[in-house]
Amino acid sequence: MFRKRFVQCLGILTPAILLAGTTPALAGGKKCTPRNDGDRTEKVRQAIHGGRAKNVILFLGDGMGDSEITIARNYHVGAAGRLTMDSLPLTGAYTTYAVQEGNPDLPEYVTDSAASGTGWATGYKTSNGRISSVAGSTGVAPYTTILELAQAAGYKTGNVSTAELTDATPAVLASHINARGCQGPTNMSSCAVYKKLNGGPGSIAEQLVDHKVDVLLGGGKGRFDQIIDGGPYAGKSVVDSAIAQGYTVVTDASALATVKPGQRVLGLFNSGNMSLEWTGELAQPFPGSGPQTCVEDQRPANEPSLADMTSKALELLDRKGKSAKGFFLQVEGASIDKQDHASNPCGQIGENIAFDKAIAVGLAYAKKNPDTLVIVTADHAHTSQIIDPVPSNQTDHPGAFSVLITADGAEMTVNYGTEPPGSSQSHTGSQLRIAAQGPQAANVVGVTDQTELFHTMARALGLE
């Protein structure tokens, strides 16, 4: 029943190893403890760079709290192993609270992705559900985003996600609306003042296209197929409006591979969220599910992986020459959160590992382009926890849980306990890891707030 896989603890796993999807075995299959690298003072000192960055790559794991990272690490490379995201040299923590819609002077301690994304995208707090707009406002009240500032300064821009592109995290960069659910022209019942028919900027899908972001890759084709109700493209779909505005529209991995630099691209690879990488048994009430080993490699071949989309985005955004303006790119691993909501440990872990492989692509690019600021963080904490094994006679154990067989050949019990079994699990309000390398990376060290990430990125690109 145990997987024949051993812990790699002789050093941090390299991007090449992780992209290959393998974990080297120790000689003789022996277990060990992590190597002590000794005094790291000089390594940390060498990692601190002030000044400007040519490029910024923000990797955002949705719902990827420390618990989710630890679960993925334990399962995939063992307790003493290390993921690619663990290799960034400068690490801190940041707070994630939102504000209350009815009284923005008071905190909302548990944020959603819309409010948290608004924080790092604009430098301002807002209320849950709002997309880069002012809490409590009844009209169109936008906050300017880091992507908009980068565009205005001549940088190329990209936005990549495994969710629908109209979902909260990709939406906060290039749209402004009072309710995150107003994703397409026919989803606007809560956002009348924003409707194009009423003279507003339109739904999230319309705004993303109208912003002319250079690279948009993800899911959500169903939103972009909806018909626009006002403005110059009334009666046409959002996809039609994108083509009219110079986009090359692709809908599968093979078509994405043919896109050349210089083309503005809209990639829509699923009608909804993109497919999961791994599957397995959901967590269940006592006696739980498992012991189980996850079923890997489940993504359909016509959908590109997050690593593939990241690689293509970098190819399309890259500008050669030291004097050329660079780019701002966000890459979201979205379904870590969605599978945490669903009490699906294998789905959650698989998305976390896919996200880690995308980070490896970004770090490989940064190795060749050291004037690139790379940041890895999350938007909010979530519910999954590693707990002690549940005694066979504890029939009243709360929540749902599953036992997984890890890379160590040991059993790990994962619990989901913020909501009753079968219900959508809740976000939690804990602070989160933030790690970085490159110019301005030292500003993530210590305990900061999500809004400070906006300023770190803006300073790096010379935007403030």
Task: Show the helix and strand layout.
Elements: H1 15-20, H2 41-47, E1 55-61, H3 66-77, E2 90-95, E3 98-99, E4 107-108, H4 113-122, H5 146-152, E5 156-164, H6 168-174, H7 204-210, E6 215-219, H8 221-224, H9 238-244, E7 247-250, H10 253-258, E8 264-268, E9 289-292, H11 306-317, E10 327-333, H12 335-341, H13 345-368, E11 372-378, E12 385-387, E13 400-405, E14 411-416, E15 432-437, E16 446-449, H14 450-460
Parallel strand pairs: 1-10, 1-11, 2-16, 5-6, 5-10, 6-8, 7-8, 9-13
Antiparallel strand pairs: 2-15, 3-4, 11-15, 12-14, 13-14
Helix pairs in contact: 3-13, 4-6, 4-14, 11-13, 12-13
How would you characterize this protein structure?
This protein starts with 14 loop residues before the first helix and ends with a helix. The radius of gyration is 22 Å and the shape is globular. It has helices at residues 15-20, 41-47, 66-77, 113-122, 146-152, 168-174, 204-210, 221-224, 238-244, 253-258, 306-317, 335-341, 345-368, 450-460, and strands at residues 55-61, 90-95, 98-99, 107-108, 156-164, 215-219, 247-250, 264-268, 289-292, 327-333, 372-378, 385-387, 400-405, 411-416, 432-437, 446-449. It has a single domain (64-460), classed as Alkaline Phosphatase, subunit A. The chain is an alpha/beta fold and 464 residues long. α12 runs antiparallel to α13. It has a 10-stranded mixed sheet, sandwiched between helices.
